Amino acid sequence: MGYILFLTKHHDGFCLWDTKTTERKVTMSPLGRDVLRELRAACDKHGIKLALYFSEGEWDWPNKPDGTRYQANGGYNPDLKKAQLRELLTDYGPVEYIWFDHAVGDGGLSQADTIAFCNALQPSCFVGFNHGDQAGADIRLRNIFSLDVGPDYAGKLREVDVETLRRVGRYIRGELKPPPPPISQGKPARASSTWRGQGGFDAAAAFDGDPNTRWGAGENSRSGWLEVDLGQPTHVARAVIDEGNWGRIRQFEVQAQQDGVWKTIASGTTIGPAKAISFPPVTARLFRLNILNAVEVPTICEFQLHASP
Question: What is the domain-level CATH number for residue 65?
Fold first, then answer.
């Protein structure tokens, strides 16, 4: 691990440090402890850099567009925003980077002014935003790799997350080679139909390794299939299906053609993004994703076949 990213304050405005700007803070809660200060000490002990998450606006701040709570836009309180940032970047040691959530607005201080204010306090601190108007901001690029793994209620990471983190670490250190591309990538493909006959949505788009392209079935379709030709009988034990965020599919099968007959080797209901399916090894040349039922025109970003789980 190079750093830990800590959520100091979300849109509700509750602060997880001992701020002097409000009583809505963790030290006034039953816990009664400055969580951020304890984390700072733990980071120093273990040689981990500290990064902070901070919501730019708050639901309860004044001057909201319609005066209501829990809406898309928060209110404006630039002086309070600056006072809180001053505490975070002055009282808690060096901060590797601070990540601003712009989901409910900038809180009355533009992103350009926010960057200038933060860098005046900590010049080496990287300042980033999840979105918003960054016009006029001095944007510096930096390769941040954040896996967004959070602890459970006992303060522990799940075993599956620990295993994943350790494996990623081995990739980064060069102890493991990156996994090979899917054996289906770039192979000849066809489909039951194509969206309005347009080339941009043909079967090949689901096998090109690019999740930003996709196959779309014919207009008004609620079922359909994708087929890939591996060129020769090939050992397959895993499929990854990426529907993106469309959420249209309700029932599907993964099939392999053996002795001229399509045999179902796996099945399921919803897909969503990057659904991984392992099954007993199958050797075949032709494989299909057979979509039996969808609530809208079926669309698939990626259909990948792999030789091992």
Answer: 3.20.20.80
